[in-house]
Design goal:
By secondary structure, the protein is mainly alpha-helical. The protein is built from six helices and no strands. The mean pLDDT is 94.
Length: 120
């Protein structure tokens, strides 16, 4: 797989991981991380399957990203990470039922333009 394809897979895995983490966070509700609640909150987090799966997606994404960095210049690869914002916006709309606004569409167009300008 070429560097840019591998980068896109890594970025997609990270974005999917973010959405899965959000599903887990929604299950957790409020976390205080204060005093005695800290240990209880941490235990709740590590017992939540969506949190575990989300972190696994992030971990695999990170390993692939290291491989990407062996094949591409950082100044060319890193701007591609902004594509994750687009993936998260679309998945948030489809899975989390978040709104897809005109501002998001304009932002996505700006991101796509920026990635094209930086990479071609």
């Amino acid at each position: 797989m070429k560097g840019i394809s591998l980068a896109l897979v890594s970025i997609a895995l990270g974005a999917v991981g973010q959405v899965i983490l959000k599903l887990g966070a929604d299950k957790l509700g409020n976390l205080s991380f204060a005093g005695r609640a800290l240990v209880s909150d941490l235990l709740r987090i590590i017992k939540t399957p969506e949190i575990i799966f989300g972190m696994l997606f992030f971990g695999f994404s990170s390993l692939l990203w290291i491989k990407v960095l062996t094949r591409m210049d950082l100044s060319r690869a890193y701007p591609l990470v902004s594509i994750s914002y687009i993936i998260v916006a679309v998945l948030s709309y489809l899975i989390l039922r978040e709104q897809f606004t005109v501002q998001k569409i304009i932002g996505i167009a700006v991101i796509i333009t920026g990635v094209i300008v930086l990479n071609y």
